[in-house]
Amino acid sequence: MISESWFEPLRVWAEQSVAQYNQVIGSCLVFFFAACIFYFYEWIYLWRADERIKVIRYASYYWMFGAVVFCDLLFPKTYLWHIFFLLKYGIVLTVGALYIVIRKIRDAA
Questions:
Q1: Domain spans, the chain
Q2: Do 26 and 85 meet the contact criterion of CB atoms below 8 Å apart?
Q3: Transmembrane segments in this chain: where (predicted)?
């Protein structure tokens, strides 16, 4: 696991006051919901089921799984775990949506 000292300044800053802690939670929540909307908007592109779309779906899931593993290695589990949980799954959904966008652009060209 990556050194937890990288995230120590965030923990110290967030624990100074309730307002700062709520600001961190709120910004992570906004990022998570924006990532959800972005992913599901792009997932509508994959609504129909044929062989080409299945390959794109599975490749998107592969990249999302890779992002989960990377975030599990990166973020600490001992403190602020719910903040990092929101960030992790926000990043995962963003990676999946970006893969779908890249495939759409390649298919259109």
A1: 4-108
A2: no
A3: 24-46, 58-75, 81-102
